[in-house]
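Q: Two folds, back to back.
A: First:
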Amino acid sequence: MTAPGVPQEFDPAWVLFQGSGVLAVNKPAGIPVHRGTSHELGLAEMVDDWVRMNPGVLEIKPGRPVHPVHRLDREASGVLLLGLTLPAARALSDAFAGRGVRKLYLAVVAGPVEALGHLKGKVRSKLRGTYRQMPAELTFRRLAGDERLSLVEVTPLGGRTHQIRALFTRAGRPLAGDLRYGKPKPSRQFLEKFEVPFFLLHARELTLPAGILGAERRIEAPLPAAFLGVLEKKGWTIPELQETA
């Protein structure tokens, strides 16, 4: 099932960059990267369908699938990279595997946090088709906060499944509204109070190393309305975020 209000078709306004066989899109929250057993729509398939209906707009021939090279949680939003050709997909995958891609996320977590922090531990992650306990690590800095909520900028080191959500939960600061990792009652209260459908996790920036698109390239996704609404209700004014909204 698709959550109410989640887009049903690909919108070309989501495109942040395309060139050299690389497509970067601003994935809306609520859309999984791939269609699955419990999800009727996936972003990759939405792009495929749109290309068939609008040939020649993107740098891919109708009928040729796009290749997502990394993952974002269904509930998360922000920069997602897809390869439009197999060579581009391999180059991107190698860059991610070699930690050559720098990632920057924004998240709203429950409770207060220190100005700067470093979290590490093992999280359940899928490797070669099998879930295992794998090491994960991240750094963060607080952009705003009070005793109830904190807005943090997160730099994950590596790409384990759910590592941001799992590590903050282990530190006693789950993402606000995270019904899977957080406590059910306060999670639901957050979602209802701020009128958002999901926890707030946004892939704000990805920086590709030199060689994939020529020089090093930074790709940035503007903040979604759900994030801006929480910032407004909390009275958090952060110029560096509002300027790119």
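A: Second:
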Amino acid sequence: MFSGIVEEAGKVIDIRREKGNLHLTVQCSFADELKIDQSIAHNGVCLTVVSKTADSYVVTAIDETLERSNLGDLQVGSLVNLERSMLLNGRLDGHIVQGHVDCTAVCINVAEEDGSWRFTFEYDFDKTMAKRGYFTVEKGSVTVDGISLTVCNPTENTFQVAIIPYTFEHTNFCQVKRGVCVNIEFDIIGKYISRLAELNQ
């Protein structure tokens, strides 16, 4: 479980395909603190450390993960948002994030707003999935590439987020432009409420 508070934007330094699997080597400042089998969120996708060195580690993404996320779009040199699993004795500064990406969305607009940025994202709307909580609500939470953010101006298939300079500079949002694909995880609490409402009909 994660909180959506990105620790660092790591750098992809090697990519290797093996049948349907994608092995990513990521360089980051806390690599020496990691353990084999440890879970880390990569752009919001929970992956397991399978090997490591003093300054990098390797994780493997399988076909199902690649189909639901943007990890297959990564290239050597890409920045990837990293978060280690949440400590139960700490503050929950973001919101409850599972690390299970629901879908991808495409950035359709970036507007600079006097020191901050407003990003608009569009995703494929599915009425059946929306009834199960796969949608956004005004001032609700959404995870974009592993970052816990507050929703603004949601429509049936779009939403906006406001990005402050710190987030822009310390995550991969500095690389998000019109046409870029991002990972989306909708709020788990909304999914549970929608499921309960469905069962009680």
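Q: And?
A: The chain is about 15% helix and 40% strand.
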